[in-house]
User: Which sequence fits this backbone?
């Protein structure tokens, strides 16, 4: 039962689009990642995802619209909805999703796919 300092944890992350596990509860994982540039278009068949911006901002693109998510705000992407996060500048983002959720969803052959995540 240790507390987690998000500033400290994010300072350890030096790359982008590579989530780390910061905690687990009730079959869910709290993940930390830094975003920069555009990610891959993808969807998750079985998992909803929560994106909470700790620092910076990013745009969540959907096929029919875009949503700007600013520091201190979060967005939930329902399962099955195709999406792509895009960050013009570096953003620090906390993700909350079921354990085992693959970051690229239905794209299992992307160079950004992470099947195994490090703990931070």
Assistant:
């Amino acid at each position: 039962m240790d507390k987690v300092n998000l500033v400290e944890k994010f300072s350890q992350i030096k790359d982008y689009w590579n989530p780390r596990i910061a905690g687990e509860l009730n079959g869910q994982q709290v993940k930390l990642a830094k975003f920069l540039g555009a990610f891959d278009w993808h969807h998750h068949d079985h998992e909803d995802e929560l994106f909470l911006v700790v620092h910076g901002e990013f745009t969540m693109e959907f096929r029919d619209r875009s949503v700007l998510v600013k520091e201190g705000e979060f967005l939930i992407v329902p399962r099955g909805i195709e999406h792509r996060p895009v960050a013009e500048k570096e953003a620090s983002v906390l993700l909350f999703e079921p354990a085992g959720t693959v970051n690229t969803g239905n794209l299992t052959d992307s160079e950004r796919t992470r099947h195994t995540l490090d703990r931070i």
Remarks:
- The chain is about 5% helix and 45% strand.
- The chain has a mean pLDDT of 95.
